[in-house]
Write a structure and sequence with these properties.
Length: 134
Amino acid sequence: MNRKTAITPAGHTAPPANFSHGVRKGNILQVAGQVGFLPAEPGDAPVVAGPALREQTLQTLANVQAVLEAGGATWEDVLMLRVYLTDTGHFDEMNALYNDYFADLKEAPAARTTVYVGLPGGLLIEIDALAVLG
């Protein structure tokens, strides 16, 4: 029987509500929305990577990757990414960062949706992912 398993990478602070950073069941791994928090020790307050979109985007991608790896996946396993931006004016910059980050991806790029939302406390971007392994 395939049991549902919560995935929490080292350095990830506890979520602000009752949810997991990632959940794996069988060969499916769903990564919850990650933001640009720096790695931290348990009990530390979350700290945002910086005020700029670049810093937050790169840290957010690193946080998504950490959940993928903790769940046994890589970017090659990702079928879908959803990007949440707080400012429509950030789209071009985010797209350039995204294209550079995934420039060496060997397989077909993941599908992607980008939407505009409100995020708390100076956060500019959030990204979630769906991966299928094997």
